[in-house]
Records
---
Amino acid sequence: MPRAARKVIIAGAPASGKGTQCELIKSQLGLVHLSTGDMLRAAVQAGTKVGLAAKEYMDGGKLVPDEVIIDLVRERLAQPDCEANGWLLDGFPRTAVQAAALRAAQIEPDLVLYLNVPDSMLIERVVGRRLDPETGRIYHLTFDPPPSDVVPRMTHRSDDTAEKAQVRLSQFHEHLGAILAAYQSVTVEIDGTRGKQDVFASISRVLEGSAIAA
Ligand code: AP5
């Protein structure tokens, strides 16, 4: 019997490594990667209604209102590629209201990976992050330096300052308990303080184990 497509949520503080691990998980499992941060940044760039509503919140490091993001995610998860290949939801849900909206739509993950990294490590990760706009690859000036041909085109997110990261972190802590409570029975905590390949090795073991159990 074919195995059901995986439905995975990855949760964690700003710069805990969600996007980095999603790149690795996606290449292993072929899941559709949906990052609400990327979706919102694309909407801001395109000047859509959602983008206009989200911009001022994102610029301040604050969560965008639930009603701005919930429909966007529900509609995207209903697309045929998500149904066929499974999905990897990165950065959603982030509030109790968002988790309740998924549940009401009968969208349930079979696994929630919670990347646990203490705040003391996160600011350095935030300020050193750089992105390659051509490939979407995430780098870090110290921990994962880009090759020299990528350096001239690297970009730096406008919310990746120490000051805005503090706002993002406090919002994260305000809502974390509600998210963990909503998915208690399917959540696995991963120690995200190690190097990215070690973190990925742990995630792979969990994915293999829960795939066998599924
Ligand atoms: P979003 O883009 O989701 O930002 P975030 O949650 O703050 O997460 P990040 O993208 O900053 O970090 P990450 O965990 O993906 O880390 P990464 O792998 O890049 O959201 C942005 C904004 O959009 C929000 O502030 C909000 O306004 C809005 N938004 C989005 N979703 C929303 C929602 N559901 N509701 C309301 N508003 C929403 O890694 C970070 C750095 O560390 C990189 O440089 C990387 O190279 C490095 N690194 C990664 N892993 C390691 C490691 N193991 N060791 C050392 N360095 C590492």
---
Amino acid sequence: MFCFQCEEATKGTGCTTKGICGKTESIAVQHDLLVYLLKGLAVVAEEAQRQGQPDASVGPFIAQALFATITNANFDPARFNSLIQATIAKRDALKASLGYQSDRDEVSWTGSPAIYAAKGAEVGVLSQPNEDLRSLRELLVYGVKGMAAYTDHAAILGLEKPEIYAFMIKALAATTRELSIDEMTALVMECGAVGVTAMALLDEANTRAYGNPEITQVKLGVGTRPGILISGHDLKDLQDLLEQSVDSGVDIYTHSEMLPAHAYPAFKRYPHFVGNYGNAWWQQDKEFAAFNGPILMTTNCITPVKSAYRDRIYTTGMTGWPGVKHIADRPEGGAKDFSAIIAQAKTCPPPIELEQGEITTGCAHAQVMALADQVVDAVKTGAIKRFVVMGGCDGRHKERSYYTDVAQALPQDAVILTAGCAKYRFNKLDLGNIGGIPRLLDAGQCNDSYSLAFVALKLKEVFGLDDINELPISYDIAWYEQKAIIVLLALLHLGVKHIRLGPTLPAFLSPNVAKVLIETFDIKPIGRVEEDVTAMMAAA
Ligand code: FS2
Ligand code: SF4
């Protein structure tokens, strides 16, 4: 196996025997084969578009299948066998309907599950010998994976845009061709542009379904009733679970990226939606053991399941773990059936309390715009000297204490804007406020990173600036998985420069590709805390 798609790639170069994430060689090669065959499906889908017979089911299928290959989403071999078989069947049915033939291997290869591993081992990342083309292809594929996740979330809530699917097909098909470095670079930049569209669509889907997030205090302690812990990013799953557990005697707690759900008006009407439990994804083994009740993983990040809670963890959607109970998709127009989880919760003791107190969330774009006059005044008077965007992902590496240290070292006239699970490095600190404006504004999940771009663009408009980089905003982004890659590409498309990216630069950037990003966009690795804080406050 060889995988270098996330920030925790072994030794900063790639996982070759087993993933730090828990991905085994056999799952890794299934992922590789699935992605390879999705590229073949994309080639056929492009041909269908050329012939004026597009198949509208291909885009959503590709989005879901790619979502399953994101870091920490799905480790279930049976699920990948099904996805590989479904990809081949879809591709061949489309070929037959078009009368299309091709000698290309990804367009014609077929075989039984018994040979998937051997084939997957042939077609992985390292099958492209040119390291710069490999780097650009993988950067594009990982950006598209992140886009796929956002697109699937929006589709679940009933919003889709054909141009997003069309780009995903175009990008995957392009990776099967011998394009020049310049052509591949142009596609990577286009990926950022379409990424903005996908992020805006998800924002529209979330707020149309559940209202605009409002600044909200979320309890960290626990009650005396049994609980269900819901993790991941899928708000529709939360909606179904809350609705089905009304008056059940069970409380619902959020975990990790589900925390910002407390800020949506639609979820505030459930009195049994009581608080947030625990921290970012990588601490789940100890926290899930202490929770005592059932846990529902709606998306990534799931880590290797421990025996302490194996009999009370459930997956759903595109997430999975071998041997763990999986809740089936909702029927058309219906709801998922969470009755088994609710029934099990009733037999469980209440959670063990990990901490007490409250944290604040719900500072997405509408809430920040509601404070716009105050914010603009504070900038004009100098009360707010700088905004520092510290969004993205959390992870295991101890070097990520950098983000806690930066949050503490920033001067009192700096405001932190965050989204994603990176916030758990500093969202329980008492950072205070500036004239009533909290010094930490949490826009929500990584899925809500659009809010950060929206606020920046609005401020640019309000201050009448020509260049987004003239704003008093610095970017100190923490990344881990592929959704952070599409957010990064989206920011680059919007013209944002001088981004600090850490805790390490991606292993999949070859020296030449990294050089282009550094020279064009002044992307830089994180450095020492005091130096970075001083530089950011000086707009460097
Ligand atoms: Fe955090 Fe994990 Fe949100 Fe990422 S919970 S690193 O996949 O999606 O951010
Ligand atoms: Fe390694 Fe990350 Fe790939 Fe997992 S997803 S195998 S940790 S590079």
